[in-house]
Automatic annotation (TrEMBL):
Listed name of the protein: Pheromone processing endoprotease
Residue span of region Disordered: 613-650, 709-776
Keywords annotated in UniProt: Calcium, Glycoprotein, Hydrolase, Membrane, Protease, Serine protease, Signal, Transmembrane, Transmembrane helix, Zymogen
Record bears the keyword Ion transport: no
Signal peptide per UniProt: 1-19
A cellular component annotation (GO) from this entry: trans-Golgi network
Subcellular location: Membrane
Active site location: 188, 226, 398
TM region(s), chain numbering: 662-684
Gene name linked to the record: KEX2
Family recorded in the similarity comment: Belongs to the peptidase S8 family. Furin subfamily.
Length: 776
């Protein structure tokens, strides 16, 4: 009896020690989470984050930057009786004033002021279309060290079926280039930093929740999985969970903004949030892609982009990557979205695994390049909401933009000194034309080709990184703004549908003298502002023809756009003239192209060409050391180890080690106590099992379980919260897929399936486990 007890004590001591040992990774996770939550509680509000009061109207005023903005603002407040509540986001020239709603109208004071919207809703550009079944090959790891269970299904990274139809990244990883030192912020609906696939690469500092005004970007709504999936595409860790991100050594920050309506103040602040920590902002959202909307950022939001490219990344410029939009099927064109057609953003569209244009991806002359997403029955495999959850249902141009952002992270990790325009040049030069039989491919300047569906072509990670390595800084940005042409030209009316349509044309010349004054070496972006009246806006086609005969489509027919509002100084943009010499006659063509009898007038237009100056860029060539992720200044052959959340990680690990060393002697003392604990455990287990049986019966009766963990609500069918249409479709689609059982079920090798059916996963995911079940 005595010997038995001693043996038990020794055994349990051993068991306990090993339990402590294996529990360390799990505890590391909780200690990281705890540490972030503690820091979040201490974190003051970012920049002047304006808490808005529904009883007030808010107005932003931009003051001339030559004077003292504060004294001008004080005078302004005195004159109007409005209350100055501080700077707008990070924009030094702006002050926000508020006045009680229904107060005296003082319109005359509004010159230069803009009433701030407190409730704008932006649309996520999620999955469009469906998938059939597909078999995953288990043999397709060119980069053989990666053991993530779903890596072999991530065809966008390594495609062994359709050879060459991937981003060609393995040669980049092979050099040890994995995005180390770069943080990509996902401006989205949250980021599940507690996922084991994202935990290690989560950037706490760069994150903020603008919807719930708190530091951690926790997904809270049923449909808040979008940002997590995008983050997984960029920086999912190399581990035993799901697949890997394209830049698995980079870090991701979550800026939660799309889950509720946002005020203009929040949007401005979000776009410049921690702009020295966050180098790249991945934005898979925008105005509605319904084929009828014409909407862009108001001036103050545009100024946030300008502020980002001027001051972000220590003056080298924030990289804003935007999805072109999912309105392709509705005939939408990304030139009617003022976010994607801004010269400060890089617009990335989608291609499918056959290198073809998926029907949803929008085309326009502002699109720089494309990269992979869903289409032709195949989706993108990435991390999902949950501890160890994955999905194979990611898609839309929503998936293309983060993939592009991840590729830029690879480039910036070897060349952190590239400016925002250098990065655009790299993207233009490295792009590879795809689907070359398509009739829209046109020869453009410097031997390149351009297609409104594909931009300059697809992003090839290897080519982009190699181009970045040898990229010489481009000169300063310069521009030539031509005088506004008050055209007042009637657009010829179609007599009947299908009749040959004539266009109205207006010409403007850029002279060599103007180019000399502007010191312009060559063109980058071209913008055209159009003022037009029309009784059926979507009936109009507009294109710009350069002196070299290269034609940019600006407006294309949009059948759904029946607005009779025309265009009020709408700005179109084209990158198709990149590299051209601006000298010569530029022609704007406008015509009615579809319906007869509709009429309109081109009232005025104005052309601006932006380009590279012969003056060198005088901005800093290397960011000064910051408290954010350190820039990787090492050569490409000596990459640093993957970025880790340093402070937090160290603290966590250290404290765990302390705990562990304290525990070893304690084990002996507690040994005898454990014996009784074990007995207790056996008893509890039995009891628990009995309870569990009862519980499952109960759950069966109500048909659904909603188990909550750490404030997350499981996703799954049912809950509708007035979310954007396209995502509602996604939800419906996924439910339908589940119901019909025709989902994209993988046949995974048994050992790979194990990690997906992980006990903990099932337990914590509750209703969400449908996706997992379908995957297995
Ligand atoms: C600032 O510029 C404005 C025009 O933009 C001018 O009217 C004003 O006099 C200038 N103020 C100073 C102090 O230079
Ligand atoms: C998988 O790879 C191995 C060796 O790398 C090869 O022998 C085998 O034929 C491949 N299987 C398939 C299905 O391609
Ligand atoms: C893909 O990358 C490899 C290096 O890994 C390179 O040799 C090859 O040229 C690249 N493909 C293209 C189309 O550039």
């Amino acid at each position: 009896m005595r010997i038995g007890v001693l043996e038990l004590v020794a055994l349990s001591a051993l068991l306990f020690a090993s339990a402590v040992h294996t529990a360390v990774p799990l505890d590391r996770r909780s200690s990281l989470l705890r540490s972030w939550r503690e820091q979040a509680a201490l974190e003051p509000h970012p920049v002047p984050l304006l808490q808005t009061d529904p009883l007030y109207d808010y107005t932003a005023i931009k003051f001339p930057s030559n004077g003292s903005v504060d004294s001008l603002a004080a005078q302004y407040a005195e004159r109007t009786g409005w209350e100055n509540v501080g700077r707008l986001g990070q924009l030094d020239a702006y002050r926000v004033f508020r006045q009680r709603k229904g107060g005296r109208l003082v319109r005359r004071h509004l010159e230069g002021g803009v009433r701030l919207s407190q409730g704008k809703r932006l649309v996520k550009r999620g999955l469009v279309g469906g998938f059939g079944n597909r078999q995953a090959s288990s043999n397709d790891t060119a980069w053989r060290d990666i053991t993530d269970p779903l890596y072999s299904t991530q065809w966008h990274l390594v495609n062994t079926k359709e050879i060459g139809h991937d981003i060609n990244v393995t040669g980049v990883w092979h050099q040890g280039i994995t995005g180390a030192g770069v943080t990509v912020a996902l401006i989205d609906d949250g980021l599940d930093y507690s996922s084991e696939d994202l935990l290690d690469n989560f950037d706490f500092k760069g994150s903020y929740d603008f919807n719930d005004k708190t530091k951690l970007p926790t997904p809270r709504l049923v449909e808040d999985y979008h940002g997590t999936r995008c983050a997984g595409q960029i920086a999912a860790s190399r581990n035993d969970v799901c697949g890997v991100g394209v830049a698995y050594g980079a870090r991701v920050a979550g800026i939660r903004m799309l889950s509720k309506e946002v005020s203009d103040q929040d949007e401005v602040t979000a776009l410049n949030y921690e702009m020295d920590t966050n180098w790249i902002y991945s934005c898979s959202w925008g105005p509605s892609d319904d084929g009828a909307t014409v909407q862009g950022p108001d001036q103050h939001i545009e100024d946030a982009f300008v502020n980002g490219v001027e001051k972000g990344r220590s003056g080298l410029g924030s990289i804003f990557v935007f999805a072109t939009g999912n309105g392709g099927a509705a005939g939408d064109n990304c030139n009617f979205d003022g976010y994607t057609n801004s010269i400060y953003t890089i617009s990335i569209g989608a291609i499918d695994h056959l290198d073809k244009h998926p029907y949803y991806s929008e085309q326009c002359s502002a699109q720089l390049a494309v990269t992979y997403s869903n289409g032709a029955q195949r989706g993108v495999v990435t991390t999902d909401l949950g501890l160890r959850s994955c999905t194979d249902k990611h898609g839309g141009t929503s998936a293309a933009a983060p993939l592009g952002a991840g590729i830029f992270a690879l480039a910036l990790s070897v060349r952190p000194d590239l400016t925002w325009r250098d990065v655009q040049h790299v993207a233009v030069r490295a792009a590879l034309p795809v689907d070359t039989g398509d009739s829209d491919w046109t020869d453009v300047a410097e031997g390149r080709r351009y297609n409104h569906k594909y931009g300059f072509g697809k992003m090839d990670a290897w080519r982009i990184v190699e181009t970045a390595k040898t990229m010489k800084h481009v000169g300063k940005q310069t521009s030539i703004a031509c005088p506004r042409d008050e055209a007042h030209t009637e657009i010829p009316v179609l007599s009947r549908q299908g009749a040959p349509s004539e266009s109205a044309s207006r010409k403007i010349e850029i002279t060599a003298a103007q180019v000399a004054v502007a010191k312009m070496r060559r063109i980058e972006h071209v913008t055209v502002v159009v003022d037009m009246s029309h009784d059926y806006r979507g009936n109009v086609e507009i294109w710009l023809e350069s002196p070299h005969g290269i034609r940019s489509q600006l407006a294309t027919v949009r059948q759904h756009d029946s607005s009779n509002q025309g265009l009020a100084d709408w700005r179109f943009m084209s990158v198709k003239h990149w590299g051209e010499d601006p000298v010569g006659v530029w022609t704007l063509h406008v015509r009615n192209a579809y319906l007869p009898k509709h009429r309109g007038t081109l009232k005025a237009w104005q052309l601006t060409v932006f380009g590279e100056s012969t003056d060198p860029d005088t901005r800093p060539t290397l960011p000064p050391p910051s408290s954010g992720p350190g820039p990787n200044t090492g050569g490409e052959h000596n990459p640093p180890p993957p970025a880790k959340p340093v402070e937090v990680d160290d603290q966590g690990t250290n404290s765990m080690q302390k705990v562990y060393s304290l525990m070893v002697p304690l084990v002996l003392v507690l040994g005898s106590g454990i014996v009784s604990a074990l007995a207790m455990l056996v008893y509890m287990r039995r009891r628990e099992r009995k309870l569990a049986d009862m519980r499952w019966t109960a759950l069966d009766a109500i048909g659904n379980s909603t188990i909550e963990e750490e404030g997350f609500r499981p996703r799954g069918g049912g809950a509708s919260t007035g979310r954007p249409e396209d995502d509602e479709d996604t939800e419906v689609f996924e439910i339908a897929q589940t119901a019909s059982g025709s989902s994209g079920a993988y046949k995974l090798p048994a050992n790979e399936a194990v990690s997906l059916t992980d006990d903990e996963d099932d337990r914590t995911k509750g209703a969400d486990s449908t996706e997992t079940e379908r995957l297995v």
